[in-house]
Amino acid sequence: MRLLLTIIILFSCLTLSAQKDSLKHINDSLPDRFYLLQKVDRNGVTMPEVEIKEVTIVGGASKSSSSRRDYRHYERLIYNIKRAYPYALIVRERLSFVNDEMKKLSTERERKAYLKNVEKDVFAQYENDITHLTITQGIILIKLIDRETQNTSYELIREYRGWLSATFWQGIARLFGTNLKAEYDRFGDDAAIEMILIEIESGRL
């Protein structure tokens, strides 16, 4: 399973090097994370104001065994996210950097040579670390790649390695209980992950 995760995640990193216009999102801008500062008149005084999303407040754990179990599960989720999240950021950063470099290359031969070097660098730099991720951390990382790039791992592999390769790895992934087509749902199944990420990004966790 660790070999599978290594191949999947590294393919995702490499795929970002060859993104096409058909992908949903090919740059590093994340508009849903920015807030518009507006000037609002309050009783004759103009003040800056920002409209923010609804904030969910979670109560502390009680002494019941069920609550303690839930809290331990929450703590474990935090740990797994902290292990996986840095790699999702690496994928996002590589997208921005490689896209900029690709614009400087004029021929297909130059682009292929550049991508080949990128592939060597990615495997040399990250293969060792990624093989130490657990299955759970790998599943979370696949979702976080979708969060950071707006593309699922399946879409990334399909664009870079082709439909047949993406279908093959999706079949292997399903055997291990993983889904390369998994999308990040910050307001649904992944709401708890999103809350933790907000805390991490704000420096409070």
Order of strands, main sheet, comes to 1-2
Number of domains: 1
Overall shape: it is: globular
Distance between the termini: 30 Å
Share of helical residues: 55-70%
| Strand segment tally | 2
**Overall pLDDT metric:** 75
What percentage of amino acids are in beta strands? Answer: 5-15%
Q: Note the run of SSEs as H and E.
A: HEEHHHHHH
Poorly predicted spans? 16-31
Radius of gyration: 20 Å
What does this structure look like?
With 205 residues, the chain is mainly alpha-helical. The protein has one domain. 60% of the residues lie in helices and 6% in strands. It has a two-stranded antiparallel sheet. Helix 1 packs antiparallel against helix 3, helix 2 packs across helix 4 and helix 2 packs across helix 7. The protein is globular, with a radius of gyration of 20 Å. 26% of the residues are buried.
Keywords:
205 residues, mainly alpha, two-stranded antiparallel sheet, 7 helices
